[in-house]
Design brief:
Layout: E1 2-7, E2 16-19, E3 22-25, H1 37-47, E4 51-56, H2 64-74, E5 78-82, H3 88-101, E6 105-109, H4 111-115, H5 117-123, E7 128-130, H6 135-147, E8 157-161, E9 164-167, E10 203-205, E11 208-209, H7 220-224, E12 229-230, H8 233-247, E13 251-254, H9 263-275, E14 281-286, H10 293-301, E15 304-312, H11 316-321, H12 328-341, E16 344-351, H13 358-371, E17 375-380, H14 388-396, H15 421-436, H16 439-446, H17 455-470
Parallel strand pairs: 1-4, 1-5, 5-6, 6-7, 10-13, 13-14, 14-15, 15-16, 16-17
Antiparallel strand pairs: 2-3, 7-8, 8-9, 11-12
Helix pairs in contact: 1-6, 2-3, 8-9, 9-10, 10-12, 13-15
Length: about 475
């Protein structure tokens, strides 16, 4: 049986990243993120002898005509579509287009369909949606379609049956992640996915799944649950060796919500990298309260070149209300120690969380400048469906729209008694300007690019970043 997995094309001018909880414009980081859920699903299906193809319409610049040609030549019985909140209306049109040309079973994966399965099924021509972690559910669905069996026993699936939406019980998360085959990267055009500034090919590697923290703005727990599940360091390094030797990629992002949650896990991975004498650059996400000087030094020795930290706010009361579970002192220490280790830092701040005022925004900007990250991202607080922030925004009347296309991290879609949506929009613009237009930042970060030979392409990336993401 043939299975087609589709990352839908952008029907307008704006292209989007869709990968788990990461849903934002391509211009937000100036790179096309390689999908990891799609080749992971493809790998588990391929292992069970399904014939699988991936149409990565964003990375490969494919359109509806390309989709139609592939469907008519490949004849898939199952089509899996990757859907996100901001692209929902776009994806809905793509799904309707596909429905008009094939009777194949149409299902969807992603955070949005996980949070709102009934709404999506009643509003689209989908036959089913996968709730949460997709691999095992997609495999079971493909098996049932191949055998002509009922869907009633497929955990994690919601589906339409004669106009009625049926929600099967939730699928248990995969406990032993080592059992998953390595993602089928051979089905992707890997050279298309490059990091900004250095412009080298890179890939994502899932090191763990699940997050035990309760941040009110985050959708991670919906997709991968609240229990941390770690791959074994040996299994991770085996995949890294495949990435380097088979695909000639030497830049890797450890794709987990928090890579550093378990200290021994991190130290063992660093030891295994050195033991196998592997040379590659890698980056990760981390919480500020889960790093220390020794760990960071060892990570640097093992090739870690960058760490992304969620700062969220420079006001402790806002951090507490957002259930972030960290202190300002822990944030300061993490950035200080990371800089001392020689690892680049990317900070993330969310403006407009509960309790935010014009004064707390000023305090946050002052705090960020003292931290002096190498790069910064400033977002608006967006209450994605399924999060506690969404419930708060609905309850308190903060939402100014429920147009899903505006549920982007660069959009001000909430207003509170302390801040209007316009206040928030202006504050975000000023935050970027205040951080990146500093003479010290320009002289230390921007001007050195003149000597690298990458100044031209970096200027084009900066212009796109400014136009599409900030303004």
């Amino acid at each position: 049986m043939n299975v087609l997995i589709i990352n839908p094309p952008a029907l307008g001018d704006i292209r989007y990243i869709r990968e788990g909880r990461c849903e934002q414009r391509l211009s937000s980081f100036q790179y096309t993120m390689p999908p990891i859920s799609l080749p992971s699903i493809a790998a588990i299906l391929g292992k069970e002898n399904f014939k699988v193809k991936i149409l990565e319409c964003i990375g490969d610049n494919l359109n509806l005509e390309d989709i139609e040609k592939e469907i008519k030549s490949f004849h898939p019985m199952l089509i899996i579509v990757n859907v996100s909140t901001a692209t929902y209306y776009n994806d809905k049109k793509v799904i309707a287009f596909i429905r008009n040309i094939t009777p194949s079973h149409l299902t969807a994966i992603g955070i949005h369909v996980t949070a709102l399965p009934e709404n999506v099924l009643l509003d689209t021509t989908l036959d089913s949606v996968v709730r949460g972690e997709p691999e095992a559910v997609c495999l079971n669905l493909a098996g049932s379609i191949a055998k002509g069996e009922s869907f009633e026993n497929i955990e994690g699936l919601s589906y339409n049956e004669k106009g009625k939406v049926i929600h099967n019980r939730r699928k248990n998360f995969i406990e032993d992640l080592d059992r998953l085959p390595f993602p089928a990267r051979n089905l992707l055009n890997n050279r298309r996915y490059t990091l900004p500034i250095i412009n080298r090919p890179y890939t994502l590697l899932i090191s763990s799944r699940g997050c035990p923290y309760e941040c009110i703005f985050c959708t991670a727990r919906q997709y991968y649950g609240n229990k941390l599940r770690l791959r074994s360091p040996r299994n991770i390094i085996d995949e890294i060796e495949e990435i380097i030797r088979k695909f000639q990629i030497t830049d890797i992002v450890m794709w987990s919500d928090t890579f550093n949650l378990v200290r021994d896990f991190v130290m063992d991975i660093c030891d295994e990298i050195k033991k196998r004498n592997l040379s590659f650059n890698w980056m990760c996400n981390s919480r500020v309260d889960r790093v220390d000087e020794e760990m960071l030094s060892k990570m640097k020795e093992a090739g870690c070149s960058g760490i992304s930290y969620g700062i969220e706010s420079g006001d402790q009361s806002i951090l507490d209300k957002a259930k972030k579970g960290v202190t300002l002192k822990q944030i300061e220490n993490a950035f200080k120690w990371t800089h001392q280790a020689g690892i680049r830092t990317l900070g993330h701040v969310i403006l407009g969380l509960p309790g935010e005022t014009k004064e707390t925004i000023k305090s946050t900007l002052q705090f960020v400048k003292r931290l002096n990250p190498d790069y910064m991202q400033f977002y608006c607080a967006v209450p994605f469906p399924g999060t506690e922030l969404y419930s708060l925004a609905k309850k308190n009347g903060w939402l100014i729209t429920e147009d899903w296309s505006r549920f982007e991290l660069n959009q001000a879609i909430i207003q509170t008694p302390q801040l209007s949506s316009d206040d928030l929009k202006k504050a975000r613009f000023k935050a970027f300007l205040s951080f990146y237009a500093r003479p010290s930042y320009i002289s230390n970060k921007v001007l050195p690019l003149l000597r690298t030979g990458r100044f031209g392409i970096t200027c084009r990336q900066m212009a796109s970043f400014l136009k599409e993401w900030i303004i």
